[in-house]
Amino acid sequence: MNLSNLRGSPKYRSVMALALAVSATGLSAGASELHAQTAPQNSNAFNIPSDIELLGQNNPNVRTPTAVVNGSVITGTDVDHRVALLVAASEGELPEAELQRVKMQVLRNLIDETLQIQEAAAQEIPVEGAQVQQRYNQVAAQNFGSDPGQMDQYLIGIGSSPASLKRQIEGEIAWNNLIRRNISPFINVSDEEAREVLQRMEDSRGTDEYRIGEIFLRATTETYPAVLENAQQIVQQLRQGGSFIAYARQFSESSTASVGGDLGFVRLETLPTAMQAQAREMQPGELRGPFDIPGGIIIMVLLDKRQILMADPRDATLSLKQISVTFPAGVTEQAFTEGVNNFTTAVASMRGCGDAETVGASIGADVVANQVTARSLPEQLQASLLNLQIGQATQPFGSPEDGVRVLMLCGRDDPEVGGGPTLEDIRGRLEDERIQKRAQRFLRDLRNDAYIESS
């Protein structure tokens, strides 16, 4: 899960409202419990025999450990709190069957996290509590502004806890410390290797490259049916609004799992044939899969597309005026249609951007000017705006609830062709790829040497 985007969901406000409601409910429950403890007690009101016999072996007040990793206990509560973070990132509840499957994967990840924290301590580079708190405060400030304490309420409200998020932060810091000590110093990329990559990029100037997100699941002949079913369930959840980044971090067995499955920009010839064929037909934002590639099954999403070493029109800076009108609550469909028609006619009569305020005032419209990059706008608007001439406007868009608006193009500064990545950029990217692969082997060694008991 991307910690810096904890509340990036469109449903953040409703989730936050839920958090506050749960907090209020918790206070009420506590007051009721206190009242019950001070009131007269009379068990005979329930006709309970004085000599009772408990049936069964389960005590609901005892939580047994879900796993023990070299003596460290991972409880069901630990798993539930971490699953709650994934569910919140996926903007909804998961079906029971999916929830149980996610819990098993989260448990495996918690085991890895525990191994990483233990190994950092064994190598005498433990994570200090102050480091964790500092990072926690940073995440809170990024998402909740001047009142970081709101994040505590948010986490509790979604069924998680501050302790769970702090534990995840501790694991990430511990793992980074281990990589810096045990792997990074031994990874070297020569200038010659970097120059070869730069030359290949120059030879490919103007051709397409694709930024792809992946969830890779290893499969053998024996495990293929189960892995395929798992992949199909993941796709189903993603199509229902699940977070690709969250599922990639929890389920993907690729080295890109730690960055939410993001492969970065790649040329198609560097990908397996099946991925090449799918990517050529995809539009940004489109999800494909599951389908087979050597070694397993993959789910992929096309995040972006551009031409190598060429300026991207979407990086153009656009000077825009937004002209918008709102409608009263409960407006009828007929009134809304008439209002849109009047608004469209008025916009069409504007003689360029200099006329926007005057015409807008005549129909009660708000006019706001701003400069933005085309890339920062919704994808549906990008192509439309980039094809406009100065003084032209988009088609109206909106709804009775949100109002109707157009964007009028008042100026455009096209991006210049950049010099492309430097030798240092290429070297850094190659080093990162090798570090991730070596880190995977390091983690496998930790698993092989560990004493892990599950219950």
Automatic annotation (TrEMBL):
The cross-references to InterPro entries, in alphabetical order and at most eight, read: OMP_Chaperone_SurA, PPIase_dom_sf, PPIase_PpiC, SurA_N, Trigger_fact/SurA_dom_sf
The PpiC domain extends over 207-304
Signal peptide interval: 1-31
In its UniProt record, a GO molecular function of this protein is: peptidyl-prolyl cis-trans isomerase activity
Question: Which keywords belong to this entry?
Answer: Chaperone, Isomerase, Periplasm, Rotamase, Signal
Q: List, alphabetically, the PANTHER family matched.
A: CHAPERONE SURA
Q: What is the official name of this protein in its record?
A: Parvulin-like PPIase
* Organism annotation: Pontixanthobacter rizhaonensis
| Taxonomic path | Bacteria, Pseudomonadati, Pseudomonadota, Alphaproteobacteria, Sphingomonadales
